Amino acid sequence: MRCVTYAGETVMTTDDVAASLVELTAAVAKEGQAEAVSIPIVTDGKKVAQAELVIGVGNDVLSAPVAWDDEEPDFAHAAAELKNHRLFPRPHLRAVEPDPDGDDEPIDWDFDQPTRA
Question: Is residue 103 part of a domain?
């Protein structure tokens, strides 16, 4: 679990949500924008709730580990939503040279040949 500090308030959420939030905040700020997002949190009474944040330019987010003895809630859906945001960083695809010592056979595709059903 992680404590996320934002605008002088601290909330608790899962590691994956906190990591996704920090990464998205940086990406939105890099674009010179701000966005409203919602994340699931665990309250002091250990109840699940939602926190609404504005992330991006001028909005600092700090994530720090917190001791947690209970079962961690499953907030994977929320982390996935943050990662699906249009500005979330995506890995860049790179063309790589084939390994000359590899056993890979080149694929000979004939795109003019009809496929079989």
Answer: no
Tokens of residue 93, six digits:
């695809």
Does 18 fall in a domain? yes
Q: What are phi and psi of 22, to 5 degrees?
A: -65, -45
Q: Do 66 and 2 form a contact (C-beta atoms < 8 A)?
A: yes
Rounded distance, CA 77 to CA 80, Å? 5
The Cα–Cα gap between 42 and 18 comes to 12
* DSSP designation for 14: -
Q: Per-residue pLDDT tens for 45-96?
A: 889 999 999 999 988 899 999 998 888 999 999 999 999 999 998 876 666 6
> What residue numbers bound the domain in which 59 lies?
2-83
Quote the number of domains for the chain: 1
Determine the Cα–Cα distance for residues 39 and 32; give it in Å rounded to an integer.
Answer: 22
